[in-house]
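Quick review question:
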């Protein structure tokens, strides 16, 4: 079975198990985790909870993962930019979005100076976590099985982002 299809079936079918694994796991460790690095945008847990939906809070601040296929951003095909739901930093362009078949919005590359990465060992294997470089919010993970030109698949949680369309004059809405 293809790795992405396998992940889609397994991760989509066992969201409770994933939530349990992620809740019991150690915090991601390494280069620039939200637990070990000072970010430009910082708030108390109460402040984050008051400004984010429960799903956004669990994903951005607690490193949770939404169920595969549940994000409306999977079906977003307009021209625009995806912003961090925590601090509104533009993180991905619609021009780099592609259909990965995983059930999560996927991109070939982030915008310049938009993300940070760290090692994530929360599911009993090493993965590369992607977080917002400005607020440290957990966005998703990056894998080396994407299409050209980068060969990367930035597999993001839709609830961690907000989409803003671009008008014909280049303005964002």
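Suggested answer, residue by residue:
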């Amino acid at each position: 079975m293809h790795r992405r299809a396998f992940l889609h079936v397994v991760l989509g079918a066992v969201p409770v198990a994933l939530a349990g694994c992620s809740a019991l796991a150690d915090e991601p460790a390494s280069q620039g985790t939200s637990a070990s690095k000072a970010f430009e945008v910082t708030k108390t847990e109460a402040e984050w909870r008051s400004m984010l939906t429960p799903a956004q809070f669990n994903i951005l601040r607690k490193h949770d993962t939404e169920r595969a296929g549940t994000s409306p951003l999977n079906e977003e095909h307009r021209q625009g930019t995806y912003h961090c739901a925590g601090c509104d930093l533009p993180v991905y362009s619609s021009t780099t979005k592609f259909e990965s078949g995983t059930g999560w919005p996927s991109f070939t590359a982030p915008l310049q100076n938009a993300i940070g990465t760290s090692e994530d060992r929360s599911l009993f294997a090493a993965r590369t976590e992607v977080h917002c470089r400005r607020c440290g919010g957990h966005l998703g993970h990056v894998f080396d099985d994407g299409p050209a030109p980068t060969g990367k698949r930035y597999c993001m949680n839709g609830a961690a982002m907000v989409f803003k369309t671009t008008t014909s004059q280049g303005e964002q809405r």
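Why it works: The CA atoms of residues 119 and 128 lie 5 Å apart. Residues 3-165 form a domain with the Metal Binding Protein, Guanine Nucleotide Exchange Factor; Chain A fold (CATH 2.170.150.20).
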